[in-house]
Description:
Number of domains: 2
CATH topology of the largest domain: Serine Threonine Protein Phosphatase 5, Tetratricopeptide repeat
Largest sheet: none
Amino acid sequence: MRSSSHYERIEDYFEQRMPEAERRALEAELRRNPALREEYEAYQAALLALDALAAEERPLSSEKKRRPLRAYLPRAAAAVFLLGLFSLFWYADNYYSDARLAGARYQLPLVDQLERSGTEAWRPEPAWLAFGRGEYRHAVELFTAPGKENGPLDWYYLGHARYQLGNYEQAMAAFEQAAAAGDAALRRKAEWSGALSALQAGREEQAIQMLQNIKAQEGHPQREEATALLEQLRSFWRRLVL
Length: 242
């Protein structure tokens, strides 16, 4: 089992072992740190589930004093342990899976952004119009038609069309082309979309490298998001069960 950098602090908080100054500092960090907040919520959910099941085994007259989460494990019945384990898997799958983490941050660009992008002149060509109508398979066919020469924006929207179809490996390739041929603004958009595509494709290590590259760039519009996503990818709860 891997250790969590936050686990001890969260348990101390629940057990009221923290000095007041540290409690206030943790509460402030919970508001701005998504990874810490999700570990806190997972601990709370597991604790409440185990506490509720343990209450069924206690006499009605017994003192209802909550024990630390770790105190349950050596004494818990098999059913309680399995339920807790299932809860952890459910939580990780719903909040820490590659698809959930990438999907929560993915944003589909609108076709009218093409006209305002400044990267290329607006061209109402069939591939872009098909993309705008949500006809992603047809858009891919038009973008990849024999003899068609794609510009940077073509590659970028081809990447998004492939992403919508679940072809994440091919989306990565298209975003790489867009990043290589586009200006700085388009390159940064393509880098971010490519990192999310890598995560959706199950290429976690490659996605982490791409996110670290974004994090290292001063002024990158997705720098903060990349930092937060990296923290979630390294989360104790994700590593525990995935």
